[in-house]
Amino acid sequence: MQPFFNQVLQAGNPRLAATFIPKCTNLEPGQTITMYEKCGMRVKAAEEAVRLKDTEAWNRLLEAAGRNTAEGREIERLGATVFKK
């Protein structure tokens, strides 16, 4: 499925490409985060970061989105219980 993801993304349809991500198997840990980022879906990438407990990726996504944006607040909410102490 990864070749389909790459082809559709290169063709300029990131939303359709994102539908192939859950179907991809044998991916490196954290690769799904990068794939969602390439599709411009930071919130979905943050969900993956939380699921994988990847603090570094979650922080990177939060900074990229901006803490005071709607997207940033959603990312912060997703990771609040997992990463905040």
Explain what the structure shows.
With 85 residues, this protein is mainly α. Helix 3 packs antiparallel against helix 4 and helix 4 runs parallel beside helix 6. The model has no long low-confidence stretch (mean pLDDT 93).
What's the quick description here?
The protein has helices spanning 2-10, 14-18, 31-38, 42-52, 55-65, 70-83. By secondary structure, it is mostly helical.
Sum up the structure in keywords.
mainly alpha
Map the helices and strands.
Blueprint: H1 2-10, H2 14-18, H3 31-38, H4 42-52, H5 55-65, H6 70-83
Helix pairs in contact: 3-4, 4-5, 4-6, 5-6
**Helix/strand order, N-terminal first:** HHHHHH
Q: What value does the Rg take, in angstroms?
A: 13 Å
DSSP helix fraction: 55-70%
Distinct helical segment count: 6
